[in-house]
């Protein structure tokens, strides 16, 4: 079972990954976006880290709702509302349980990803974060073993955006010129899924 501390560790692992990869994310975004994706996400997850140091939410859902709120309030552009919605809706779907199962988290993440799709009006194949998130949540099952499969699916989904033409977001304005570049949102989404898998695997080692 996964408790609030697990979710805190997941988000702190995300923050470390975003900090490490911020320059690469911004470089990807410079080709087809506003050249600020890594900068914005670093700012957002720095705010999430600070909030988690000040507050100690008692449930997994409350941890994610707090993080989502921080992203929405601190990140400019589209990524703040989109990632904030992902975490908030996932957290709300988890409810008030003090511990949740891998299956509950999988179902909640599917709810969160569906909310992102609705907010952005996008789907897999549009060269957005959903190209990593949708295959990842589709791979999740009832056991923690499925998170490694989800990680691989997210990584493959991000790489698969290279030959796609963007149909949503800032990159869509480029038309065919968006072809040949990896989508920064799909890349950062894959980082988030990877951080979740790493946190699951670390918890299993410690148990």
In short:
The protein has 207 residues and is mostly helical. 70% of the residues lie in helices and 2% in strands.
Name given to the CATH homologous superfamily: DhaL domain
**First and last CA, distance:** 11 Å
* CATH domain class name: Mainly Alpha
User: Judging by the overall fold, what is the CATH architecture?
Assistant: Alpha Horseshoe
Major β-sheet annotation: 2 strands, antiparallel
Main sheet strand line-up: 1-2
Number of helices: 8
Oligomer: single chain
Write the CATH fold name. Answer: Serine Threonine Protein Phosphatase 5, Tetratricopeptide repeat
Q: Taking all residues together, what is the mean pLDDT? A: 95
Radius of gyration based on Cα positions: 16 Å
Q: Please estimate the helix content.
A: 55-70%
Instruction: Provide the succession of SSEs.
Output: EHHHHEHHHH
The structure class reads mainly alpha
Percent of residues in beta strands?
Answer: under 5%
Low-confidence stretches: none
Molecular shape: globular
Whole-number tally of structural domains: 1
Characterize the structure shown.
- The mean pLDDT is 95.
- This protein has a single domain (2-206), classed as DhaL domain (Serine Threonine Protein Phosphatase 5, Tetratricopeptide repeat, Alpha Horseshoe).
- Helix 1 (4-32) packs antiparallel against helix 2, helix 3 packs antiparallel against helix 4 and helix 7 runs antiparallel to helix 8.
- It is built from eight helices and two strands, in the order βααααβαααα.
- The longest helix has 29 residues, at 4-32.
- The chain is mainly alpha-helical and 207 residues long.
- The N and C termini lie close together (11 Å).
């Amino acid at each position: 079972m996964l408790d609030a501390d697990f979710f805190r560790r997941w988000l702190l692992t995300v923050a470390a990954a975003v900090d490490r990869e911020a320059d690469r994310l911004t470089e990807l975004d410079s080709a087809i976006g506003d050249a600020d994706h890594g900068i914005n996400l670093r700012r957002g997850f720095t705010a999430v880290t600070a909030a988690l140091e000040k507050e100690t939410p008692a449930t997994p859902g409350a941890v994610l709702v707090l993080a989502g709120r921080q992203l929405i309030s601190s990140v400019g552009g589209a990524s703040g509302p989109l990632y904030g919605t992902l975490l908030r809706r996932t957290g709300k779907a988890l409810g008030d349980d003090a511990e949740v199962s891998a299956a509950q988290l999988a179902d909640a993440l599917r709810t969160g990803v569906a909310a992102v799709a609705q907010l952005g009006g996008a789907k897999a194949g549009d060269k957005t974060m959903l190209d990593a998130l949708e295959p990842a949540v589709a791979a999740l099952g009832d056991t923690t073993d499925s998170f490694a499969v989800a990680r691989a699916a997210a990584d493959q989904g991000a790489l698969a955006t290279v030959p796609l033409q963007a149909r949503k977001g800032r990159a869509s304005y480029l038309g065919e010129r968006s072809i040949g570049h990896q989508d920064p949102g799909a890349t950062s989404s894959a980082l988030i899924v990877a951080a979740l898998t790493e946190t699951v695997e670390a918890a299993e080692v410690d148990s």
